[in-house]
Amino acid sequence: MNSFSLADCTTVEAALSQLKNGAVVKAGGVDLLDRMKNGTDTPQRLVNIRNIRELRGIQAGPDGLTIGALTTLAEVADHATVRSDYTVLADACGTAATPHIRNMATVGGNLLQELQCWYFRSADFQCLRKGKDQCFAFSGLNQYHAIMDYGGCPSVAPSSAAVAVLALNGSVELVSAKGKRTVAIKDFYVRPDANPHKFNVMEEGELLTSIKIPKPAAGTKSAYQKYGEKESHDWAIADAAIVLEMDGDTCKRAVVAMGAASPVVRRSSEAEAALTGQPITVETARAAGKASMTNAMPLSMNAYKVQLFPVAVYRTVLLAAGKMERDPSAAG
User: Fold this and answer.
1) 179 to each of 13, 53, 56, 175, 191, how far by Cα in Å?
2) How far is it, in rounded angstroms, from Cα 228 to Cα 200?
3) pLDDT one-digit tens code per residue, 136-171
4) Is 199 exposed, middle or buried (0-12, 13-18, 19+ CB in 10 A)?
5) What distance in Å separates the CA atoms of residue 192 and residue 101, rounded to the nearest whole number?
6) Where are the beta strands (DSSP E) in the chain?
7) The pLDDT of residue 233
8) Would strands 266-267 and 250-258 be described as parallel, antiparallel, or unpaired?
9) Is 307 helix (H, G, I), strand (E, B) or coil?
10) Edge-first strand listing for the sheet containing 64-68
11) How far apart are CA 109 and CA 160, in angstroms?
């Protein structure tokens, strides 16, 4: 790991004053320290925001949720209002990583995770995302990579929280010396074909301070499930976030969001159409799962995802609708 200086900040203003000349923000530090150990990132200066109290906490009001970026995944997962009214978000945060990591990792940091592609994470490979002209995953080990919308880079969206925030139509607040701006999560991540060197729309000197989620409509039910190679702490190889606005037994509106299918979190309009206006049954849930793989283009080693994602969508739809029992041993 390279040597670096550390600026320990206790206010947003102090942190913003330090965010210049390539300085990097450290919150929980889980993902950042991994990248530094791998040699992927070599920052000369870290800006520690862990002790900024105003960036922690959950405010639940009549218009929705405001979650401070430094709120831990465990705090989100355990919050009573989140669990009851924004279940998909509690599920996503409560199944990320391991319990001890959830007690350290922040929800803002989860949204800002960089790619989990092992070629990008290795200092030995200079890939497209690092300013070169080659993606090693297409002809290399690609069993965990994207099957949809990947263009020139089949890396996958690594954030479980982002899948849930997308399903809930959430947004993030960004602050800089110039002021504040709010960006919908659907517009926050940058597709690699648009710019392979940027992962999100944040500019130098900006700080992610909060996540805002509008209050769901009456009759809304939701759930999130992930499937990993290891049952407990692995990153998802397939995950689904489902939001259903119900009118009795009929689904008025459906949101089907997926993370590990493509380089950015995405919604499946085809799966949503299969559910909208229909009762939620085993048959309609299976139809949504099948529709979620419209236009899938698996790589040489990940065709199994084309079979796994329909199962993830199908089961999560039934879970959200209350037609499948929750696993009492599930994290969170």
Assistant:
1) 11, 20, 20, 6, 26
2) 25
3) 999 999 999 999 999 999 999 889 999 999 999 999
4) buried
5) 29
6) 5-8, 24-26, 45-48, 58-61, 64-68, 171-176, 179-184, 207-214, 220-227, 238-247, 250-258, 266-267
7) 65
8) antiparallel
9) helix
10) 58-61, 64-68, 207-214, 171-176, 179-184
11) 11
- Structure tokens belonging to residue 155: 């890396």
Query: pTM for the whole thing?
Result: 0.95
Distance CA 298, CA 143 (A): 9
Share of the chain above pLDDT 90, in %: 83
Q: Report the b/e string of 23-50 with b at 16+ CB within 10 A.
A: bbbbbbbbbbeebbeeebbebeebbbbb
- Report CA-CA distances (Å) from 8 to 51, 56, 194, 217: 8, 16, 35, 41
Q: Report d(CA 286, CA 265) in Å as an integer.
A: 21
Query: Contact at 8 Å (CB) between 201 and 184?
Result: no
Element (H, E) at 168: none
Both tokens assigned to 247: 């009118």
| Residue pair 115/192 in contact by the 8 Å Cβ criterion | no
CA-based nearest residue to 259, from 236, 293, 234: 236
Residue 282 · residue 128 · CB < 8 Å: no
CA–CA distances in Å: residue 11 to residues 26, 54, 209: 14, 8, 11
The residue type of 169 is N
DSSP code, position 185 = H
